Amino acid sequence: MKLANLTILPIAAAVIWLAACSKAPDLNQYGASPQMPTPARGVMPDMVIAKPAAWGSQVPTVPQGYSISAIATDLGIPRQTLVLPNGDILVAEGRGGHAPKLKPKDIIAGKIKAKGNTSVKSGNRLTLLRDADGDGKYELQTVFADNLDAPYGLALVGNNLYVANQGELVRFDYRAGQTKASGAPVKVTDLPSAINHHWTKALAASPDGRFLYVAIGSNSNITERGMDVEVDRARVWQVDAATGAHRAYATGLRNPTALAIQPGTGTLWAVVNERDEIGPNLVPDYLTSVREGGFYGWPYAYWGNHVDTRVMPQDPAKVAAAITPDYALGSHVAALGVAFSVPAMGGQFGEGVFVGEHGSWNRNPPVGYKVVFVPFRDGRPAGDPVDFVSGFRTSDGLTHGRPVGVTVDPRGALIVADDLSNTIWRVTPTRSATTSTVPPAGVPAAGATTGGAIP
Amino acid sequence: MISIVDRTPPKGIQLFHAAALAGALTLFLATLLADYAYWTSHEIQWSNFASWLLVGAMVLVSIAVICEIFALVRGGRSVVYILVLVATWIVGLFDALHHARDAWGIMPTALVLSVVVAVLAGVATWIGFASLRTGGAR
Question: Testing the interface with A: which of B104, B107, B111 to mutate, by most A Cβ within 10 A?
């Protein structure tokens, strides 16, 4: 009797563990009306962490008719990239955030999650890559600027190169052909940086270059650090490039990790990472056009008017006001990059957006760990996402890389930053020379990338 | 005056065991108060306090369980005490795991579990201390 009581403990623990390991049901969570299950959380959260492994001679998988190569390695955690008008590529490298661990759970989960990420030192710099002879090999890899504080968002407007550090928006003077910044950057404005639970500051410039859009993530998963620390968080700022003055452009966006301006319309689009810990199929991360003055739900509601009961006190008026996003990418895929394609990308990948998915840490089976293409028609998403770059994570759990920022080179290439293997990948259509539908090189670059290179 | 020396094995818990048990009860009660404060105020810091108080309580109640396992070897233990102590440990573990949820997601279950575990810890302490002997003399 006494011993039976003691032996039951490991059995109970095993039951908990098995319950936590059950596979998530497969739901259709792509597009405008994803299936939304009821919120649920087991005794333990479903954590399936990537097991890092070297690429070796392997490379990611791309569709037939495309080829991929590593154009830079040994970086200091590459996140976002910017293609400059002369074809040079700038890479923002670093790791930010200084959120204190509040609960026992933060310490345990933090240690587990860290196993799935790179352990290299934060670069805190911009690296410039150059392919002078146009052979697809970027033979020059040099530091453009360093001593930055977790730089992430990049945008070029004329001769002004804007960099969004985790705590301030700065500006460099940029002259075509430069390989090193001519001086220290000038501060445009401070950005909200207390705690920085979600530290990334994505950046895009308006088509006329007058305004900069800065995406600021929430300071918690779902208000577990209190509402006081959420002032000026979970929103997109519109910053006046000349004065540094800002206003909230859109709010309620939990963690907007990348911004892009749609070519032609000039509309701002974002990919947003949604909340965790209410089930493997909640809440879908999304791609959406960002409406000026719009409220997208966080923290009170998700995917339109679905109430999140973890927020107290609740706010029914805010729930009612929440806008439903345009396009669900699937729960926990961790979309960290977005870029509009150009016809030069060729074939079915000429009209739409590329989305870099870092991959899940709290879903079984894991999702993401790839770059998908969301086809567009008439300026709106049309159809399910298609895998464009995959093979980052194999079925045995080994993970060679994790995609972050994606940028379209208007000459017809996709640049993908991989912050696990610290590599920059470049995907190009191999058939471009024989495909008659591809326009000549030199199509307008305006706003076609994260941030957007504006001539 | 006649003094009778009891030579049978002690049925009560030992001093270190008793100290761990009393400490656990205190921390479980403090957890309950912190949970109640969060329930009424919606102030998140109370929830953080509750999480850490619960970790302390679980460390001490685990020590008490280990002491009891060693004491089992000597035999003659109170079955009721063992049952209540193990129940305290199990409910405490679930309470601690439940406190790992974010914000109001812990409510109302966290408050209910904290009440249950505080009562169990109180009963365990009562039974344990009722049989406590200091010198083996009566």
Answer: B104
Across the interface, of B45, B96, B101, the residue whose CB is closest to A277 is: B101
Closest-approach residue (CA) in chain B for A308: B105
User: How many CB atoms are closer than 10 A to CB A176?
Assistant: 9
Cβ distance of B44 and A225 shorter than 8 Å = yes
CB atoms within 10 A of CB B120: 23
Taking the C-alpha atoms of residue B67 and residue B62, their distance in angstroms, rounded to an integer, is 9
> In A22-136, which ranges are continuous DSSP H helix?
104-114
B105 close contact with A: CB closer than 8 A: yes
Task: Say yes or no for a CB contact (<8 Å) between A2 and B107.
Answer: no
Is pTM beyond 0.80? Reply is yes
Distances (CA, A) of A194 to A96, A162, A170, A231, B5: 12, 21, 18, 10, 67
Going residue by residue through chain A, which has 455 residues, state the pLDDT in tens, using 9 for 90 and above: 344 444 444 444 444 444 455 788 888 999 999 999 999 988 887 889 999 999 999 999 999 999 999 999 999 999 999 999 999 999 999 999 999 999 999 999 999 999 999 999 999 999 999 999 999 999 999 999 999 999 999 999 999 999 999 999 999 999 999 999 999 999 999 999 999 999 999 999 999 999 999 999 999 999 999 999 999 999 999 999 999 999 999 999 999 999 999 999 999 999 999 999 999 999 999 999 999 999 999 999 999 999 999 999 999 999 999 999 999 999 999 999 999 999 999 989 999 999 999 999 999 999 999 999 999 999 999 999 999 999 999 988 899 999 999 999 999 999 999 999 999 999 999 965 444 444 444 333 333 344 444 44
Are residues A224 and B86, on separate chains, in Cβ contact within 8 Å? no
CA distance A311 to chain B (A): 6
ipTM: 0.85
Helix, strand, coil shares of chain B, percent, nearest 5, are 75, 0, 25
Chain A residue closest in CA terms to B109:
A43
Q: Closest residue of A to B95, CA-based? A: A43
Write the single-letter amino acid at A173.
D
